[in-house]
Amino acid sequence: MIVLGYILKKEFKQIFRDKTIIAMMFAMPTIQLIILPLAMNFDVKHVNLAVVDHDHSSYSRQLISKIGASGYFNIVAAEPSFQQAITYIEKEKADLVLEIPADFESNLVREGTQKLGVTVDAINGTKAAIGGNYLLSVINDFNQQIPVNAGRNMPSGAIDITYSNWFNPLAEYRFYVVPAVLVLLLTLIGGFMSALNIVREKEVGTIEQINVTPIRKWEFILGKLIPFWVVGMIVFTLGLGVAWGVYGIWPVGSFVTMYVFAAIYLVALLGFGLLISTYTSNQLQAMFVAFFFIMIFMLMSGLFTAVDSMPPWAKLIANLTPVTHFIKVIRMIVLKGSGFADVQKELVYLLLFAAGLNGWAIFNYRKTS
Amino acid sequence: MSAVTLDHITKTYDKGKVLAVDDVSLQVAEGELFGLIGPDGAGKTSIFRILTTLLLADKGSAAVQGYDCVKDYREIRSRIGYMPGRFSLYQDLTVKENLDFFATLFGSTIESNYDLIKDIYDQIKPFNDRRAGKLSGGMKQKLALCCALIHKPEVLFLDEPTTGVDVVSRKEFWDMLKKLKTQGITIVVSTPYMDEAMLCERIALIQNGKIMSVDTPEKIIAAYPVKLYAIKADNIYRLLTDLRSMPEVDTSFAFGEYIHLTLKNERADTTALQQAIEQRGHTHVTIKVIQPGIEDSFIRFMNQDSK
């Protein structure tokens, strides 16, 4: 125990001596938490629209001005033919082309129906899909208001849908993404730093000198993991502070539950780092292996996209990473105020990950040395 | 009791493809200054790593101070000091922090064994607060030696401690080893430098994982079976090729400004040889009989081995 204390002292000394590392450790979470959620915004604004109006009637003008007034669209061009309008999409100056056919108004009045052409640039899938949807809803709205329809009575008893966003009333993306970025940062600290730090001892050769001392394996391992656990908890706290200070996100749920989860999650991630360090022999290898897994963690854990909408095999992989469960829990606690009972299942998962990864790592550490 | 015993140790790498240590047996007596002499890749480091419990041998058994290197590895670790060939201390910790750290790992303090390291430590003490990575090569060696000694080990293993160190520091280093020996510490040291072999009490010549000879350096030299000549002429390179083509010459090697030569049939008189050489147009030919050194013995063993 006295030896462990001294190892810890040495580790902290080394961590705090490396100015770059220490700066990165604390600047990274702060800066990333400030920048990433602002950049990662899925609310689509400023969809560029090119309009082809063959009709030039009062209805078509009404429709166009309604679209322009919706706030989501910039009308970048009004062209006489579709061929000319489509060049705007080709040159990436427009995302959508709306084509209003001739006799738009007269057909509407006389026959009650009329088709419109909407052409979407699908290279930026999100923008195209969401922009297209916005346009459709504006047209729909217009459809309701035009005198032809307004005159007709809507069939009574039609199902009318109203939305209300619970737990995130304004459906703001930052509420979704800030907790996730917080998790991402913990993952980086826990997974990367610990793996690289242990492998460095191998690479520099200091582990040789350590191994010929009577130091116990568990003392060495704990001496490596505890400092990063502490750093991780500090970063987590710092991140919560930034989330509150910059985004006004104050967790609805209990801090105790959140910290319990963060503590267990870090143990699991440190086990992951330790595991990588037992399989690699230098920092470059360790970095690549860690990066490989962390990329999968990031892209499949529901950080950016919902796990529920993944195909079954991807869902399976997602559930096999600890990150998925932790992100879920943090979102539940921060946004929804879930209590301990609601997240029990995730707690069991994370405990299993912590035990599994660390057990595997220690088993492999013994075998190789 | 022997301080170090190796009994038919064999070690291979890459699943048996590379033979690093080939059936090595040797013993080091207590309090001895023992040298493992051999070129790079001879298997010296593998033997050290087996003895310091860092590596498991494929076959055979090894013991340090009577403790088995596999079963009683913990016992051994607290009784030995090991200085690897590569500088393996924390470069981002200062001199004093490194010493303190390793002392504590052994449950000791700098003060309790101060007399043992005093001579060496005094030289690096002015740099107490300098980071180990910023020390010169010689200073690093001294610090590493201090760290290996800080817990008063019974056996000290030094793997190529003088490789890459300047001549003056090398000499100092060997003086330090001699002083340590007087404290009763058994020292096993490896080196690729043949001249350092003479400074050991007993040496083992090792090549390709095999021990070629184990004895005191004097006895190994005395056992040199034939007369050794040193020859010099103006064109040393042409002389060497000419000598190698002469039927009566057994071996010839360039050795500094001389060529060391052995003959198939020994002659008391060197005039015939001198004439034969001068007939081939060499000028300023000098021939003398010399005392062989360890290197001559080493080369002779090596040639016997490859024949």
From TrEMBL, chain A:
Main location: membrane
Gene3D superfamilies per the UniProt record, alphabetical: abc type-2 transporter like domain (3.40.1710.10)
Transmembrane segments: 21-40, 175-199, 226-250, 256-276, 288-307, 347-365
GO cellular component: plasma membrane
GO MF term list: ABC-type transporter activity
Record's subcellular location: Cell membrane
Membrane topology type: Multi-pass membrane protein
Family indicated by similarity: Belongs to the ABC-2 integral membrane protein family.
Identification of the protein by name: ABC-2 type transport system permease protein
Organism: Chitinophaga arvensicola
Organismal lineage: Bacteria, Pseudomonadati, Bacteroidota, Chitinophagia, Chitinophagales
From TrEMBL, chain B:
Keyword field: ATP-binding, Nodulation, Nucleotide-binding, Transport
The organism's place on the tree of life at top rank: Bacteria
Ranges where the ABC transporter domain occurs: 4-233
GO function term, MF aspect, one: ATP hydrolysis activity
Matches recorded under Gene3D superfamilies: P-loop containing nucleotide triphosphate hydrolases
Key word Nucleotide-binding present: yes
Family: Belongs to the ABC transporter superfamily.
The protein's name: ABC-type multidrug transport system, ATPase component
Organism the protein comes from: Chitinophaga arvensicola
